[in-house]
Design a protein that fits this description.
By secondary structure, the protein is α/β, with parallel strands linked by helices. The protein is built from ten helices and ten strands. The strands form two sheets. It has a five-stranded mixed beta sheet with strand order 3-2-1-4-5, sandwiched between helices. Strands 8-7-6-9-10 form a five-stranded mixed beta sheet, with helices on both faces.
Length: 331
């Protein structure tokens, strides 16, 4: 059983042998947070309290299992919103205690990476490009359950930049899908910066790009000019994708990986998916795996997938398990 409550989705899944999804139930809170333009932690926590039991029972019903069929419970320990994490952690501890089931606390981003194992078995060494609202990372893996962060964002994550640019364009929350849609309707005619950082760095930075978009709009308004939002969205997305894909290709070659995985909520971005497919289509010896849209956003099947690996490696959590919003994937 996987349980995920790190942000604004209450999710429970039942997965057999780490790869076969028997159920994957997600209760989204988007409508509740939309009017605020972003996730409100206190509201998210309250919704988790209201939904967790309902979602858990529905997941077991769909999978047609009882607690006697569950070998272990994997739950997102962190990172995430501390109040939201606590709901999932305490629900998992309660079920584990009541039914004497082993408990495994797992890392949320590791879950996103292992969503790909629900599609096909992983081959090592591999590289994962993690792109979400709070994270933009390149993670190198030599074997199951080991993670080495070789590149990460120094300021805004890509998903965060998408949401801020969308807000500037008066697009509804969450902004990422709306920017992606607009980008396909326009042309990248506006010159925007690309932050490559140091020559040998795999880190990312999108704060400057976000500021450049805002300044471009404000300057145009002051001059009485009209900028087509479709072209601005296309130009912004082209800049983000260029940096993400170029650094991923370079790292894949340097680390001589067999596979490249795409992971995280922004993995649902059509422009990014197409660009990666295009660049890796003729790269010999490197397979690209991109999860279906249903496994890109937060879900519990991915938590069960990484949980099964950690369970097999002997990891167990005690009932002292607590939410850890700053959990380090490498540790």
């Amino acid at each position: 059983m996987g349980i995920e409550t790190s942000c604004d989705e209450t999710a429970v899944a039942i997965v057999r042998n780490g790869r076969e999804i028997l159920s994957n139930v997600v209760a989204s809170q988007i409508e509740s947070h939309k009017r605020f333009g972003g996730v409100v932690p206190e509201i998210a926590s309250r919704h988790h309290v209201e939904e967790i039991t309902i979602v858990l029972e529905e997941a077991m019903k769909q999978a047609n299992v009882t607690f006697e069929d569950i070998d272990a419970i994997a739950v997102t320990e962190g990172p995430g919103l501390v109040g939201a994490l606590l709901i999932g952690v305490n629900a998992a501890k309660a079920v584990a205690f009541a039914h004497n089931i082993p408990l495994v606390g797992v890392h949320h981003i590791a879950g996103h990476i292992y969503a790909n194992r629900l599609i096909e078995e992983l081959e090592f060494p591999l590289l994962s490009l993690v792109v979400s609202g709070g994270h933009t990372e390149l993670v190198y893996m030599e074997e199951h359950g080991t993670f080495q962060v070789i590149g990460e964002t120094r300021d805004d994550a890509a998903g965060e930049a998408y949401d801020k640019v969308a807000r500037t364009l008066n697009l509804p929350y969450p902004g990422g899908p709306h920017i992606d849609r607009l980008a396909h309707e326009g042309e990248p005619t506006i010159s925007l910066p690309r932050a490559w950082l140091e020559e040998d760095s795999y880190d990312f930075s999108f704060s400057g790009l976000k500021s450049a978009v805002i300044n471009t709009l404000h300057n145009a308004e002051q001059r009485g000019e009209i900028i087509e939002p479709e072209n601005l969205a296309a130009s912004f997305q082209a800049s983000v994708i260029d940096v993400l894909v170029t650094k991923t290709v370079k790292a894949a070659k340097e680390y001589k990986v067999k596979e490249v995985l795409l992971a995280g909520g922004v993995a649902a971005n059509k422009g990014l998916r197409y660009a990666l497919e295009n660049r890796f289509s003729d790269m010999e010896g490197v397979k690209l795996i991109i999860p279906p849209l249903s496994l890109c956003t937060d879900n519990a099947a991915m938590i069960a997938a990484i949980g099964s690996i950690m369970y097999e490696k002997g990891k167990r959590s005690t009932l002292a398990l607590n939410a850890n919003p700053g959990l380090d994937i490498e540790k």
